[in-house]
Design goal:
This protein is mostly helical. The chain has nine helices and four strands, in the order ααααβαβαβαβαα. It has helices at 2-7, 9-16, 26-36, 45-59, 70-83, 96-103, 115-123, 135-144, 148-178; strands at residues 63-66, 89-92, 108-111, 126-129. Helix 7 (115-123) links the parallel strand 3 and strand 4. The protein is globular, with a radius of gyration of 19 Å.
Amino acid sequence: MLVEAHKDKEFADIVNNSVITTLDGLPLTWGLRLLYGIKQDRVAGMDMLPDLLSLASKNQIPVFFYGGTEEVLTKTEAYIKQYNPDINTHTSALSNRFYCALIHKKPMIVTISSIQGDFVEKYNLGLAIENCSNLAEDIQDFIQNFNHSEFKKKCDYLMSSFMEDYQYFKARIISFIFE
């Protein structure tokens, strides 16, 4: 995430404006100490998770999990439903590259039967492929049928939907923290 934010100013703005950011990784703590003399312990998100889930449950704040594999996200959601059944969970294995493709309005090639594949197929945001055996033909077909103005509208719609979810979540967190 750090490298992605360094390369992409829009993504860096999203990271810098997040409600909670944890320093997860010893190399980052070493860098802070070496470059700025800041002694920061590693704060793994998993160390904070039980307390955050408890607070989310008490305050009816939805929880969103990003990244990993579909299997890990499914297990995470099952765990939360077992121990914190009141929490409304959302999971996504959407990568930063998926969001960057939407922001910069670039068609993508993704694996079929994945969360990204489902979005790409539903909104016609590129190609969702099972294997590369006919990739050249698939790309040619996509190009021939590509409607740039419709594509841009779908990218904007999906990003707007994601941002509405984010703003709702952020407002609930801020409300919880300051009330």
